Amino acid sequence: MSARLPTHLAVGALLRRVNDSGGMAVVRASGEAQSGAVLVLLCEGRSLRAVERMRGIDDRDVLIAAGPDDGDSAAVEEYWRLRRRRDPDLWVIELDVPDAERFVAETMLVD
């Protein structure tokens, strides 16, 4: 049995933590509340990159790089919009906070 929180609760916790720390966190697209996948857009200066929470082979959540990794913000935008068209259950969250990936890992990964 999985200890994973429903997606809407994990997303809400992530939004609160980032906003409480003085960063900015917004939902670009809401997905399926209980078990939707989560794609997180990380603002790093003028570039944008994406990570996704995935279930690993050992039944633990991990973060993996998703989409283009060349720092091309337009390509990342196109990537997530295409993913969203193919998977309407997908959540897309944007974070603009120092060390954003740490916030995602601490909030959304289950031990």
Features:
111 residues, DUF1491, 33% helix, hypothetical protein tt1805, DUF1491 family protein, alpha+beta, five-stranded mixed beta sheet, 31% strand
Q: Can you offer a commentary on this structure?
A:
The protein is an alpha+beta fold and 111 residues long. It has a single domain, classed as Protein of unknown function (DUF1491) (hypothetical protein tt1805, 3-Layer(aba) Sandwich). Helices cover 33% and strands 31% of the residues. The chain contains 3 helices and 5 strands. The protein has helices spanning 7-20, 73-86, 100-108; strands at 24-29, 38-44, 47-55, 61-66, 91-96. A 5-stranded mixed β-sheet has the order 1-5-2-3-4, with helices on both faces. Strand 2 (38-44) and strand 3 (47-55) form a beta hairpin. Helix 1 (7-20) packs antiparallel against helix 3. It is globular and about 35 Å long.
Largest sheet: 5 strands, mixed
* CATH topology description: hypothetical protein tt1805
CATH architect. name? 3-Layer(aba) Sandwich
SS-based structural class?
Answer: alpha+beta
Spatially, the strands of the biggest sheet line up as 1-5-2-3-4
Low-confidence stretches: none
Backbone CA Rg: 13 Å
Q: What is the overall pLDDT average? A: 89
Order of helices and strands: HEEEEHEH
User: Residue share in helices?
Assistant: 25-40%
Tell me what portion of residues adopts beta-strand conformation: 25-35%
Count every helix, treating DSSP H or I runs of 4 or more residues as helices.
3
Shape: globular
CATH class, anyone? Alpha Beta
Strand runs, count: 5
CATH homologous superfamily identity: Protein of unknown function (DUF1491)
Distance between the termini: 13 Å
Organism: Sphingomonas citri
InterPro entries: DUF1491 (IPR009964)
Protein name: DUF1491 family protein
Pfam families: DUF1491
